[in-house]
Design goal:
Elements (H helix, E strand, L loop, with lengths): L1 E5 L4 E6 L19 E5 L5 E2 L5 E4 L2 E6 L8 E6 L11 E8 L154
Parallel strand pairs: 1-8
Antiparallel strand pairs: 2-6, 3-4, 3-7, 5-6, 7-8
Length: about 250
Amino acid sequence: MEVLRKYNVQKTIYFPLIETGGEDYTGAAVHVAGDSQRSFDGAAPNNSTNAFAHVANGIYSLALTAAEHQAEIIVITIIDQTGPKVWQDQTIIVQTYGNPAASFAFDLDTATVVASSVAAGGITAASFAAGAIDAAAIATDAIDADAIAANAIGAAEIATDAIDADAIAANAIGTSEIADNAIIAAKIAANAIGASELATDAIGADQIAANAIGASELATDAIGAAQIAANAIGAAEIANGAIDAATFAAG
């Protein structure tokens, strides 16, 4: 027979003994030294600390000490050492739980908490010790693309202004964070950046560094007749007095 018992906790086990040469339980078994032995995790057997005793109707009890529960598997044999034998040999296998060194580390004495029995707000930040959930507590690649459902993170999941300048560390997005050719024409949809995407005065004199756009920044023939719309530069585009004698070099 096989039973479960908590690691390092005194407990009594119960078992039947059958008469020798028969099939009925016997209440005639009397313990003598060596009749009950135990082996820890396959080691050589030794006599049990306590003797077994008859309870009733051929059922016996044997109290095992806490120390006798300090193993993954305890094998107990109940063998009549005298002759003629009064009972058939009996074996009880004890598996332990509730300790890392036990057969089962989890504690069967702790009730399982059903999710529906946890009140709303029952588990909050205050329920966790500081640093209980950090990078070291999360397995490598535990959270990756495969672990996140399609469209799990969309506009509806991000609060208004959740991602703004204050939420991004200085220099968090720099050259080293952007792969070569990560942002090229092929990655930008047609008309993705147009007048409607730019705030009023988003690109003005204050946003352009001195000499940011000069001859070296412009490709040869970058600005030619083909790049200037018909009537793009007319009287309305030239301020009064913008072109006068002082504008032209002497001679």
